[in-house]
Amino acid sequence: MALAAIEEGNTAAKLWGLGDPPNSVMLWDQGNNVLYPAGPVDDLDGSLAELAIHLAQILPADGSPWFKFVVPDQEWDAAMHRALRGIEFRRAEYVIFDFPQHQNPPDLPLPPGLELRFINMELLDDESLAGREPLRHEIEWMWPDLDSFARRGAGVCVVKGGEILGWCTAEYMSTAACGIGIEVAESAQDGGLGTILAASFLHVARKLNVTPYWECAESNKGSVRIARKLGFRERERINFQIGRF
Predict the structure, then answer these.
(1) Sheet hosting strand 211-217, strand order edge to edge
(2) Are residues 86 and 119 in the same domain?
(3) Among 62, 121, 180, 209, which has the highest number of CB atoms less than 10 A from its own CB?
(4) Which helix (H) or strand (E) holds 165?
(5) Share in percent of the chain as helix, strand, coil (round to 5)
C-alpha cells in the first residue's frame, strides 16, 4: 500500500542505494517515518553507518525523532542494530486489516448537534473553524502538501459549534487502496466518535472504489476491536523495530 502511494506521488519518500555497487536499497517513507530495507545485506556495515549518521540529522528535523524499520529477516535486523548502535529499540507487531469489497459499510448515526463534513480546501482554509490547524498539520505530514490531498485525497470530519472534533482521512492513497488516519479531540473521546468517523469514511472509499486498510499495533486492543467491529478482516502482520534518535 505504501509503495503504491509513493509511486503515484501521494506520499513523500526518499530512496538510497547501498553498497558498492549499490545492490541493496533503503526506502524512507516520510509519511510515517518508516524505513524499508531490501536486497542482500552482506558487506553493508559501512554504507549503513553513513546512512545512519544522515538519518540522525534529517529525521528529527523533519518533525519526529521516532522512526520504524521493517524487519525482513534476522540478517537485516542485526545489520540495522549495528549501524544504529546506541539507539534503544522495541519490537512491535502490527496488524494490517482490509475492508472486503463485497461487504456493505455500516451506517452509524451521528449524535445530535454534530455535523459531518467532507474535507476540502474550503474547509481547510476556513479560519473560523477551531481545530483546523491540527487537521492541516496531519494532512501535511502524510501527504506531500495540502493541494495534493485536495486533488487526490479524501476525508471526513465532525464539526460542532464551529469546532472540528475529529476527522478520518485517507493516507497512503493510490488508485486501488488507501490507509485510514483517525484523530479525535481529547474533549470528544470515549464517545464512539472515532468509530463513527471510520464508518463514514468507509462509504467515501466505496464511492471512490478503493479498498480501505486499517493498521495498528497488535498491543492496541482498542483499535483492533474497532477494526473488527466495523467489519475489517485481518490480512497480515508485520514486525517493526521502533527507535528514537
Answers:
(1) 13-18, 24-29, 34-38, 66-70, 233-244, 90-98, 211-217, 177-184, 163-171, 155-160, 115-118
(2) no
(3) 180
(4) strand 163-171
(5) 35, 30, 35
Distance CA 83, CA 86 (A): 9
Q: How far apart are CA 145 and CA 136, in angstroms?
A: 9
Number of separate domains in the chain: 2
24-29 vs 13-18, strand pairing mode: antiparallel
Q: Say if CB 91 and CB 240 are below 8 A apart.
A: yes
Instruction: Judge whether 234 and 95 are in contact, CB under 8 Å.
Output: yes
* 6-60 pLDDT, tens digit each: 999 999 999 999 998 899 999 999 888 899 999 999 888 889 988 888 888 877 6
Which residue type occupies 191? G
Residue 55 lies in a domain: yes
Q: Give a yes or no: residue 219 inside a domain.
A: yes
Query: Which domain covers residue 39, as residue numbers?
Result: 2-93
pLDDT in tens, 99-123: 999 999 999 999 999 999 999 999 9
Tell me what the pLDDT averaged over the chain comes to: 92
160 three-state secondary structure: strand
3-class DSSP state of 119:
coil
CB atoms within 10 A of CB 210: 19
> Scanning the structure block, which residue is given the C-alpha cell 540478517?
75
φ/ψ of residue 65, rounded to 5 = -80, -10
Residue with cell 540529522: 57
Question: Which three cell numbers mark 51?
Answer: 546512512
Other Cβ atoms within 10 Å of 211 Cβ, number: 17
